[in-house]
Input
Amino acid sequence: MVTRRKAIVMGAAGVGGVVLAGGGAAAIANRDKPEPPSPDAVNGQGRLLWRNWSGIQNSYPAQRLAPKDEGELAAGLKAAVGPIRAVGAGHSFTALAATNGTLVSLDAIAGVVGWEGDTAVVRAGTRLGALGPALAAKDRAMANLPDINKQSVAGAISTATHGTGIGLPAIHGDVTALTLVTADGETVECDPGKRPEVFNAARVSLGALGIITQVKLRTTANRRLRRRVWIEPFEETLGKAEERWKAHRNYEFYAIPFTGLAANITHDETDEPALAPPASPDDAFLEALKMLRNTFGWSNGVRKSVAGMLLGGTEPETAVDEGWKLLSTERPVRFNEMEYHLPPETQLAALKEVQAVIEKERRDVFFPIEVRRIAADDAWLSPFGQEGPRGSVAVHAWYKDDYAFFFELIEPIFQRAGGRPHWGKLHSLKGQRLAALYPRWKDFLEVRRDLDPRGRMLNPYLTGLFDLA
Ligand SMILES: Cc1cc2nc3c(=O)[nH]c(=O)nc-3n(C[C@H](O)[C@H](O)[C@H](O)COP(=O)(O)OP(=O)(O)OC[C@H]3O[C@@H](n4cnc5c(N)ncnc54)[C@H](O)[C@@H]3O)c2cc1C
Output
């Protein structure tokens, strides 16, 4: 047996050798795609470029605010040029934060500023990666984390950012109170007892109600977790996924198209001593999958058997550490993404359909498909709803590759399966179609109108989404 990293690195080198030895003109042509065109760093009016993480959204804000406190924020907002948009880490794939008006960063309004029992009072610009050690200093932790920890607290909750775990809600599910400053400079505090309609609307609010400056966040004991990662046949994973969601604190898997395999990841509480994880093989793993595509993309059969030799039979990896150090990892390879949250009863059938259509129609895809389960909560625009856990399925495309197939081939499957889109990831829904998915859609729009009657926080993307044109 060899470790996954060794197998992948050796395998990728071997497959690369086949390409260099003359593995076919089509394969060579596919190898080095040019960088997508980059917008100018400064536009004709001398305004600096803003761009999201994946590079597909950009704008040239006329004004940028980075206030040090709420007073400075309120004063700045009163005088600001619209549309006013808040930005966290810019990790959303949709145009939520794009503006040619005023871009507001809360990077300077950050940190844990108090405790109410086990509930932390957190400034909204705090990055999740900084929150981990700050909470751990009190031996507390966030109950769950997404794949990465670069996001700001406000940015994460505003799009319903989540991890995986059938008993664990998305991050906003642990928010017990929040403070926001409206576009007109008014400070609004809310919780389930005080302005409950604002609390219900604001926990997942796409940055459309005001600038969130502070949240109270329920925390959990800072326990050590054991992570296990292993690869097995996709059909075996499908058969065991339901029992694994019930058995493990956190369980997710990645279906790997064109390989017949799936990578499984569990996290469970443990008192075992810390055990360092192997160096993150994510980039090597993706490089190997890209090589397989480039070299054997002409034949699904050959691609699958080489993948089996490369990835099957690698031994499981184990790591032990405090949850905040293990649950998020690095994602060094840029991509674009569509993710929908589906009823559990349709999730795995939809996944099979998605994988089948990719293998039939899109041999250029090499990223794995991520599959998770998330607990319910009661925020009005939470895609997880109140009706029980939802299952998410996420499809990725390398940043140099075409992602139009998300809309043409994948989204119709998610929609037929009764899915709701991730607010920060690519989707095409707007207006009535969203209203049909969210029973409190109209109530949300009413709160939005009350807090921002002049629509100063609406950029063209939100105007379309809310059907307010
Ligand atoms: C590599 C990568 C991995 C990811 N992994 C996951 C994952 O595992 N799970 C998941 O659910 N999502 C994931 N995402 C999506 C990501 O978590 C969300 O898009 C999240 O909203 C990004 O946070 P941000 O701080 O970058 O916010 P931005 O993208 O900058 O902003 C998001 C929204 O929040 C609003 N906002 C920001 N700050 C404020 C504020 N102070 N007040 C009011 N509104 C505000 C913005 O206006 C915008 O509407 C991932 C994205 C990437 C690029």
Q: What stands out?
A: Residues 53, 85-92, 96-97, 106, 124, 146-148, 151-152, 154-156, 158-159, 161-162, 206-207, 211-212, 331, 422, 424 surround flavin-adenine dinucleotide (CB under 6 Å).
